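Re: that chain you flagged

S.,

Sorry for the slow reply, it's been a week of failed gels. I finally had a moment to sit down with the sequence you sent. For the record, here it is as I used it:
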Amino acid sequence: MEDLNKFLRTRNSFSMNSERWARIQQSPGWVRDSFIGVDHFSEPDGSLEVVEYMLARSCWDGQKRDEFQLSLLLDCGRAESAEVDYGGGSYHRPAIGGQFMMSDITTINKIQGDGPFHSIAVIFSREQFLSQAGEFTDDVIPTLEPLLTRSFRDDVLEVMIKGLVNSYRKGESDRRVNLDSRLRDISLRLVQLAGNARAGLDDGERFTSVEIQKVVEHVKANVASDLGVEDLAKEAGLSSGHFRRLFRQTTGMSPKQYLTLARIEMAKRLLRESSAPVAEIAEQCGFSSRSHLHTEFRRLLAINPHEYRKNR
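Prediction finished late last night. Pasting the structure tokens below so you have them in one place:
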């Protein structure tokens, strides 16, 4: 009964704006009836759709589109796994929160399973993915095929997807500015995960979520300090070279990139929540100078700190 009450509370939190989701309105009635709750967001040009939803059962409208869909299972009301075939063979997705499925909508053959399922889906065109991911693959056409034949977990990608949903739900003033950056991060992470799967890397060759969390907490507690890779490697109990390799394999970014992103996120928060001068915020966030913050802010967000504060 408690599980039922939990799902009812979740269902009541949805805005039920499925009428804005054109593909559902154009679907057969049984597909529309499978949706218990929907929060749908999209870009005006149709380049991206982000949906948090609850399903009574797995469903597919039968239409094959030149798109990718990345779905994250948040919760499931049944113990049975779902059976899917996205063109690479049939497999079962465990009924456990945190499971991802990557689908190429041009090759879907089967989706079967009883819910209720509470999930997030990010739907983007193949062209958009190739454009974003191609920046990181040295002119090699990126492929996600290894992710189409299994479900998978990834703490980093989960944080990215939930952050994308929250940016839409909160109506963040900088969401549009940050969208390309978010999609690049997601595309890069997917390429990295596909590469790991193709190479057959096992969990022993990556950090565990607990190990990563230890490093993350150390960064948060010391973000204003002159942190270096050596400091983080020491915290993880590894040599600098080994730490760099494992960190990139686990997160899809270098330790230096992560430090910069952590400092930028702290700067964004201070710009929103305080009236402190930008130079003071730069110092509090571990940047060497006001101009250093300005440079990194514009490089990552395509906007300077003053503009961000003005539009917050």
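What I noticed first: The chain has two domains: 2-199, 203-311.

Talk soon,
D.
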